[in-house]
Amino acid sequence: MNLIPLVLSNVSLMDKAMKVVTQYQSLLIKGAINTVIVALIGTIVGLVIGLVIGAIRFVSLSHDRKDSKITVICKKILYFLTSCYVEIFRGTPMMVQAMFLYWSLKQSLNWTPYFAAICIISINTGAYMAEIVRSGIQSVDKGQNEGARSIGMTDMQAMFYVILPQAIKNAFPSIGNEFVVNIKDSCVLNCIGFAELFFQAKSIQGSVFDYTGPFLVVGIMYFVLTFTTTRILGIIEEKMNHTHSSIPASDTTANSIQRGGF
After folding, report:
1. CA-to-CA dists, residue 123 to 89, 96, 110, angstroms
2. How many Cα atoms occupy the beta-carbon half-sphere of 125 within 13 Å?
3. What is the C-alpha to C-alpha distance for residues 10 and 157, in angstroms, rounded to an integer?
4. 88: in domain
5. Is residue 220 situated within a structural domain?
6. What residues make up the domain containing 108?
7. Which residues are CB-neighbours of 172 under 8 A, at least 6 positions away?
8. What is the widest separation between alpha-carbon atoms in the chain?
9. What pLDDT is stored for residue 11 in this prediction?
10. What residues contact 2, with CB distance under 8 A and at least 6 apart?
11. What is the C-alpha separation between 143 and 145, in angstroms, rounded?
12. Residue 81 CB neighbours (<10 A)
């Protein structure tokens, strides 16, 4: 007998969810598109920021006997500034960052919530990407950097042409995970009026005077987005790790020499 109210409540909940999907599907689709776009752009821009910051921090820690005192001082200053950026944006909630940056810069920049959301999530992601890139750089064998320097490359040339490509490949799982996290964490940007999924759920809730239906639907949509993204990233990672070669491994060196490969 106790199961009857539970079954009835579940049926009622599904009816509410279906009503939300039927009546407000355009808002939900718009929210999902905004969520994915901002998360994707924020991850890409954040990766670029992370690559630059990570490279600067790595080069700043490298010591060369040929460096002048001014160069050493500049390296220390750059390392201090980049460390401050990483620690501040990793150590404070993105919602606080969004509120502070949006309202403090709104009058001077006159930016929309959409553009502000992209900037905020990019800057926040850049701090995390810098640490991901740093760990990726550390995973690259030191001999790679020494080999690049031995053929006349500078620190920056060795970094961008030799170290970073390998670091990105090593850190790709963490980079992909950051994209998945951004899909979910973008919901905090509703505090500045950005119309992502959570914002749309709140709007629908105010119209239907019910919390359970709208947030059940949005929760399922978030799960579908993250699950699909995770599977796609897994396929990409598998292809990146799979090496294709038309030459047998035992004959690679000999054939390459004969063809002028070395």
Report:
1. 8, 13, 18
2. 32
3. 61
4. yes
5. no
6. 33-186
7. 236, 237, 240
8. 84
9. 52
10. none
11. 5
12. 14
Give the pair of three-digit tokens for residue 78.
Answer: 């750059």
Of 127, 124, 129, 126, nearest in space to 188 by CA: 124
| pLDDT reading at 2 higher than 90 | no
DSSP type of residue 82: H
DSSP 244: P
> Is 110 a domain residue?
yes
Q: What is the CATH number of the domain that holds 168?
A: 1.10.3720.10
State residue 249's pLDDT score: 37
CB 167 within 8 A of CB 129: no
pTM: 0.82
For the record, the structure tokens of 212 come out as 């359970």
Work out how many domains the chain is built from and give that number: 1
- Residue 164 within a domain: yes
Start-end of H helices in the chain: 3-61, 69-91, 94-109, 113-138, 142-150, 155-158, 164-185, 197-208, 212-241, 252-258
- Burial code (b: 16+ CB inside 10 Å, e: under 16) for 2-32 equals eeeeeeeeeeeeeebbeebeeebeebbeebb
Copy the structure tokens of residue 108: 């001077």
pLDDT, tens digit (0-9, with 9 covering 90-100), for 46-96: 999 999 998 888 778 776 667 778 888 888 999 999 999 999 999 999 999
Alpha-carbon gap, residue 54 to 164, rounded angstroms: 9
Determine how many CB atoms are found less than 10 A away from the CB of residue 187.
Answer: 20
